[in-house]
Amino acid sequence: xxxxxxxxxxxxxxxxxxxxxxxxxxxxxxxxxxxxxxxxxxxxxxxxxxxxxxxxxxxxxxxxxxxxxxxxxxxxxxxxxxxxxxxxxxxxxxxxxxxxxxxxxxxxxxxxxxxxxxxxxxxxxxxxxxxxxxxxxxxxxxxxxxxxxxxxxxxxxxxxxxxxxxxxxxxxxxxxxxxxxxxxxxxxxxxxxxxxxxxxxxxxxxxxxxxxxxxxxxxxxxxxxxxxxxxxxxxxxxxxxxxxxxxxxxxxxxxxxxxxxxxxxxxxxxxxxxxxxxxxxxxxxxxxxxxxxxxxxxxxxxxxxxxxxxxxxxxxxxxxxxxx
Length: 324
Ligand SMILES: Nc1ncnc2c1ncn2[C@@H]1O[C@H](COP(=O)(O)OP(=O)(O)OP(=O)(O)O)[C@@H](O)[C@H]1O
Description:
Layout: E1 10-19, E2 25-35, E3 40-44, H1 51-58, E4 66-71, E5 74-75, H2 80-84, E6 87-91, H3 102-112, H4 117-130, H5 146-158, E7 164-168, H6 176-193, E8 196-200, H7 204-210, E9 213-218, E10 221-226, H8 228-233, E11 237-246, H9 248-257, E12 262-265, E13 269-275, H10 279-288, E14 292-299, H11 303-313
Parallel strand pairs: 3-8, 3-9, 6-7, 7-8
Antiparallel strand pairs: 1-2, 1-4, 4-5, 9-10, 11-13, 11-14, 12-13
The chain binds adenosine-5'-triphosphate.
Adenosine-5'-triphosphate (ATP) binds next to β2 and α1.
Protein name: ABC transporter ATP-binding protein
Organism: Paludisphaera mucosa
Keywords: ATP-binding, Nodulation, Nucleotide-binding, Transport
């Protein structure tokens, strides 16, 4: 079917998923967003925001309570098999059959996608080479480390030359250098082959580096969306970091009186989170209290600050740092 120019590779319209009847939990609540061809879109949010539930609906392994999912303008509910033949998926947490070897797993998967024999072998070789796994091809999945397993699931996702790839935390448990390789590979697939990638992650640095755009979920709704740098810039606070020689208690007192969050470190270092327009007034108050500091740094928020801000607003503990 010809696809009209400008049709998004993926469009989600008013998607909702409610679990349970007695005590219903709405994991995804009227979510709408679109992803262009060749775009890398980050799907972010604190724990329980609805990312995995969304991915599962996009894969048709969960049925939406309401709403529509369109791939190339075609409804997933009506063209499931044809659409899913063009969708790749990898999750750091989904398992492949553990008693099959790497090579066997990929072969079974390639057959499911009806790849011709010659292509199956050639493509498997290219991907295993690319992810440094060719020498491990005869090993069973159960004999692989977590990082090696992740690499095989990524090979699986890209094996049938998908047009869209859904990646749920793809670089969790990877060494930093392998995670970098994966990012380069994903970027190359998008730039050269026009593959679109939806990417969930807790790793802010990664998202800021690789994603063209991010959609930030909170309680199943979009809390914000935009380019990573734009999103970070919408947070209106700054962090003022001072190395205080005299009057550390006064700094804490002045911050508390203004209801500002502070973090203290050893060596008289204190960081104060403050709305940007109030920075000058805060520094003036320190000067009147005769506080002396030898170093000052004013830092604009990062995307990670934004993430923490949303988590805190929900009264959740800060998420555990992601393994690099
Ligand atoms: N099968 C289910 N039955 C009931 N509630 C569920 C089910 N699956 C998910 N939920 C709830 O839906 C909400 C969203 O969960 P989901 O796993 O989609 O979030 P997430 O953003 O992927 O979180 P995380 O980052 O922790 O993986 C949570 O409140 C979760 O407890």
